[in-house]
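Hi everyone, sorry if this is the wrong subforum. Our group has a chain we'd like a structural model of before ordering constructs, and none of us has done structure prediction before. Sequence below.
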Amino acid sequence: GPWYKETGSGMGPALNTASAMGGYILADRGTWLNFKNRADLAVLVEGDARLFNQYGVIVVDPARHPHVKKDLAQAFADWVVSADGQAAIAGYRIGGEQLFFPNAGKP
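Answer:
Right subforum, don't worry. Here is the predicted structure as tokens:
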């Protein structure tokens, strides 16, 4: 409807538009935590399973892409899903707030 505004821009400028218009916006956590021009904007919903944005790690098939450094890629992938990798991901913070919520090994 007429209430919906498409900015045609990146998340930062879209947050600026929402702030200037007193509107609502669906934004990613990283951009929000880095955003300084919040004015009256506030987080209304977070943690809802419907907002879950899964990240993954895969090793590219060296048979299809011979230039790939398969051993290094596999070492990285193994680290990402290891306890140390998951702890590093969970420990990444912006302004003291956790950005990512690792879930390797969880169904």
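For your construct planning: The chain has a mean pLDDT of 92. The first strand starts at residue 93 and ends at 94.
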